[in-house]
Model the fold of this input.
Amino acid sequence: MTNQINHFLITYILCSMALTVKSQEFFDDFNGKRLDTKVWEKVNRKWGEDTTKARHGGVIGRNVFLKDGNLVIQANGNLYKGIVWGHGQKTKVGGAISTRQKFASGSYEIRAKICPQPGALSAFWTYYNQNDSINHEIDFEFPGKNQEPNGPKDSDIHWGLMTNWRGVKAHEFKNADKYFGNQTDGQYHLYRFEWHTGSKEEKRRVEWYYDNQLLHTSYDMVPTIASNFWVGIWFPWWIGNADFNSDYMYVDWIRIRPFHEQGDQLRQE
Done:
């Protein structure tokens, strides 16, 4: 009987611990002296280059640092004359970080000042890629107003692009280009998306908010696979010219509140 009671108590404690861990939210206010590399990875790589268009230099760890209680991400544009190199060049080089932990359904919120240059892409996104057919991703990107029928010359920092993916082919993602208003006013703003993978109570969808105002909801091509969360600046070919020296994105804090919905796929790579 004693062994049965002990077994019951151990099982109860372990289950309670699991439920406690499962319900925890992620929060970082970047008030330390250095980025917590046990929580975050400084990304050093290059992606998304169309060799028929303008080249870029990827993202590097040196362009990511903490200052005055902010995560600071530096973007070096076409006029940069400093000594820091990216991938193959010194110009059009950004920075990015990624959580080491994966998250699925939840509320993803950032208080930030995005980079005010329409030639540098400020972005917040979830990302899981197994191959071109399994690319689960949710994007919050600025500037917007550069998707068809618009183009790079139309890029506008007062617009944002919201996209959700399940694959990279044209029929496997949905996007929306929306007017956000003045984001270069020197003030912090709230950027949030709520990712629902689906349950008995919740329809599968992604909702995007700006300063707590709902701007767009997507019900198609909603990801379900747990993903790393990324924050960064880079220089894709489809936005405007990066005609500046260096500029910055400032992030005050990041909060991820998991929903733990039935549609979550917690597969491992």
